[in-house]
């Protein structure tokens, strides 16, 4: 098989990075349905047109470029174009521009395909408005009620942000693609974690994407004067949280696996004054695993432990489940194809889960799906210093190319 041109991938990635680039912190600010996001989408459509590909943008803001006939199911490849605030240049964008390079390489080498290839740049994957709008729309996993209520952290409604760019949010409901239109979906992405680099492995072949549950937890005690309330007579809400954090590793050891994660990412003490014993603490618990049964066991263990700790410290314990997303599994045949192609190239590789969410988890509901990871330097992502070495980019794109050819050929 021929090799891609990593120089062209680099050129495209740097061109895309201009949209939303901030000179001060060197980060990319290309949040979903921002001006920079829409400029990047127009650039991509112009690029598709210059490559004689058929292109369009659907009602959810997804951009498509197609090579091949319309009357056959396609092998879809791609990722997202939006970024988090102060993001890096690789997250999402790599999967899109690698797709462009695969098309160029296929054409230059007159590689015969029996099925069309369609590149997708999904919209609003980073969750500015609380979901993965583009992929959810393609897979039919979005509701009109959610579209009308969704808002970002500043309170701006999704439907208003869309309207500023000429979108009618009702059209999102027409973005669904039938499973009959798709033969497979492949996504190339940076790992966004330290595993591949630490193991000196070039390629991660994703088995599946971890399920996620998110709780908002409240422990309620009694606010007291920090100087006059004796230590043994307090109902200190913070001590309840502190005790729980020490139990997290035990919960994973007893109920979880090496793929389990439990994270407390947000904490708010009330009243939040240095000379007052905290009478209330609100915090989040986010749990992840690739096995739905393990997820449930982790959640039940968290509830038991919190109830016990609340009794110990004389606290009330309340929680609300904000979301529960089941694990999503990659197709075993597609995984085998990627593995065989990696072996054929002599690339070191390993099977691994994805702890982060990706477009692939929704596409997996309507078509055979696979995902390829390449290493992230120091495991950094969602930050200006996100980086993946160009030789790793080249290996990932070559493997994407090889896998496309197999999947698009009878």
Automatic annotation (TrEMBL):
Cofactor: Zn(2+)
GO molecular function: hydrolase activity, acting on carbon-nitrogen (but not peptide) bonds, in linear amidines; metal ion binding
InterPro entries per the UniProt record, alphabetical: Amidase_Cbmase (IPR010158), Bact_exopeptidase_dim_dom (IPR036264), Peptidase_M20 (IPR002933)
Superkingdom of source: Bacteria
Record key words, sorted: Hydrolase, Metal-binding, Zinc
Binding site for Zn(2+) 1: 80, 91, 189
Residue numbers binding Zn(2+) 2: 91, 126, 382
Note on how the cofactor is bound: Binds 2 Zn(2+) ions per subunit.
NCBIfam families reported for this sequence: hydantase (TIGR01879), PRK09290.1-5 (NF006771)
Family to which this protein belongs: Belongs to the peptidase M20 family.
Protein name in UniProt: Zn-dependent hydrolase
């Amino acid at each position: 098989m021929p090799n891609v041109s990593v120089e062209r991938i680099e050129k495209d990635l740097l061109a895309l990075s201009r949209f939303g680039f901030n000179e001060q912190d060197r980060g990319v600010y290309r949040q979903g349905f921002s001006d920079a996001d829409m400029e990047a989408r127009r650039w991509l459509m112009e690029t598709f047109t210059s490559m004689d590909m058929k292109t369009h943008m659907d009602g959810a803001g997804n951009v498509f470029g197609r090579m091949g006939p319309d009357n056959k199911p396609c092998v879809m490849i791609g990722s997202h174009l939006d970024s988090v605030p102060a993001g890096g240049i690789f997250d999402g964008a790599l999967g899109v521009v690698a797709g462009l390079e695969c098309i160029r390489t296929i054409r230059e080498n007159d590689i015969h395909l029996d099925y069309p290839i369609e590149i997708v740049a999904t919209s609003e994957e980073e969750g500015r408005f609380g979901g993965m709008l583009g992929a959810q729309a393609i897979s039919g996993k979005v509701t009109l009620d959610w579209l009308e209520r969704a808002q970002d952290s500043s309170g701006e409604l999704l439907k208003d942000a869309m309207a500023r760019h000429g979108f009618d949010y009702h059209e999102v409901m027409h973005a669904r693609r039938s499973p009959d239109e798709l033969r497979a979906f492949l996504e190339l992405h940076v790992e966004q974690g330290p595993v591949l680099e630490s193991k000196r492995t070039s390629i991660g072949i994703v088995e599946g994407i971890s399920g996620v549950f998110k709780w908002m937890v409240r422990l309620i005690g009694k606010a007291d004067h920090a100087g006059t309330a004796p230590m043994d007579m307090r109902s200190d809400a913070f001590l309840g949280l502190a005790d729980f954090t020490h139990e997290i590793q035990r919960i994973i050891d007893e109920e979880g696996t090496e793929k389990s994660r439990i994270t407390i990412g947000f904490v708010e003490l009330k009243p939040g004054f240095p000379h007052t014993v905290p009478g209330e603490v609100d915090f989040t618990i986010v749990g992840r695993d690739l096995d739905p049964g393990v997820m449930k066991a982790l959640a039940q263990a968290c509830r038991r432990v919190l109830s016990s700790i609340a009794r110990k410290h004389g606290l009330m314990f309340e929680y609300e489940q904000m979301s529960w997303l089941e694990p999503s599994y990659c197709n075993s045949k597609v995984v085998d194809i990627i593995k065989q192609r990696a072996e054929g190239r002599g690339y070191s590789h390993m099977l691994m889960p994805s702890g982060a969410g990706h477009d692939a988890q929704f596409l997996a509901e309507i078509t055979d799906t696979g995902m390829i990871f390449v290493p992230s330097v120091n495991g950094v992502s969602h930050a200006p210093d996100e980086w993946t070495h160009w030789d790793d980019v080249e290996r990932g794109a070559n493997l994407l190319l090889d896998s496309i050819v197999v999947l698009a050929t009878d």
